[in-house]
Design a protein that fits this description.
There is one protein chain. Helices cover about 25% and strands about 35% of the residues. With about 110 residues, it is of the alpha+beta class. The strands form two sheets. It has a five-stranded antiparallel beta sheet. Strands 4-7-6 form a three-stranded antiparallel beta sheet, with no helix packed on it. It is globular and about 35 Å long. The model has no long low-confidence stretch (mean pLDDT about 75).
Length: about 110
């Protein structure tokens, strides 16, 4: 429940979530995945629409950095993403170089 309460506040501060485009990704049920994009921000959004835990590999994505500022259920070990029942996962899809630049010089709140 704690995760779901923080989500609306976090979402309001993500340009890709509030004004961006959305591209649906091919995933097997019960997962729903899409990429939201606005300006230079690209976010991967994955939701588990079932009552059971589901492991998966993020689809066709080389670099996944879990989105900051949001304590998400589930886990990501750098290769496999495991979502709990009804869980969700958000990741920043900017390149590793872009993420280092943000870490060094600051960037938008996430």
């Amino acid at each position: 429940l704690h995760h779901r309460r923080r989500l609306p506040r976090w979402r309001r501060h993500q340009p890709a979530m509030t004004a961006g485009t959305a591209e649906l990704l091919a995933m097997r049920a019960p997962l729903l995945a899409l990429v939201r994009e606005y300006g230079e921000q690209r976010l991967l959004c994955v939701s588990n629409l079932s009552a059971r835990e589901v492991p998966t590999k993020p689809p066709g994505i080389d670099f996944v950095q879990p989105a900051g500022g949001l304590d998400m259920p589930g886990s990501y070990d750098g290769l496999m993403l495991t979502l709990p029942a009804w869980g969700f996962f958000f990741a920043d899809l900017r390149s590793a170089a872009q993420m280092r630049e943000i870490a060094l010089h600051g960037g938008p709140a996430r």
